[in-house]
Amino acid sequence: MAGGGGPQSPTNKVFVQRDYTEGTAVRFQNKFPQELERYVERHVFENTINTLNNFYRQAEKINSSSFCEGCLACISAYLLYLCVETHYEKYVKQAASFIDHQNETIYVPRGLYITDPLERGLRVIEITLLDARP
User: Fold this and answer.
1) Among the listed residues 47, 30, 35, the one whose alpha carbon sits nearest the alpha carbon of residue 106
2) Whole-number Å distance between alpha carbons of 126 and 116
3) pTM, rounded to two decimals
């Protein structure tokens, strides 16, 4: 009866909120949560958040490629999106892959699990503490 793709029976959660200081673009605060001090180093956490912010910035970036993609989609009555992955989807998938890799190599071995922000509507990054360390 378990839902989602993450580990079950969490003991605690930490949420990293969106950063709206530079507008409404998808960006998360890289302020290190005190609750994670016993689990992961500050620079490792900040690198993860900064890399995710970079993926989302690239996803929302408007360039000639994304402009042409939008024009072709409009001309084809948006049937283009049935055949082609969008510029945005490419970067969101890269971010999800990065999170999976970070979980496998860094966070799960240290008792943490990062949930893909897309699963939370890009509102927060949820970090689950898998085991309560004293």
Assistant:
1) 47
2) 8
3) 0.82
Q: Give yes or no for a contact between 56 and 18, defined as CB atoms under 8 angstroms apart.
A: no
Question: Where does residue 10 fall: left (phi above 0), alpha (psi -120 to 50 degrees), or beta otherwise?
Answer: beta
* Domain ranges (residues) in the chain: 12-30+37-129
Residue from 102, 104, 100 nearest 119 by CA: 100
Residues 6+ apart with CB under 8 A from 89: none
- For the chain, percent of residues with pLDDT exceeding 90: 67
CB 42 within 8 A of CB 108: no
Split at pLDDT 50, 70, 90, the class of 69 is: confident
Q: Give the pLDDT of residue 94.
A: 97
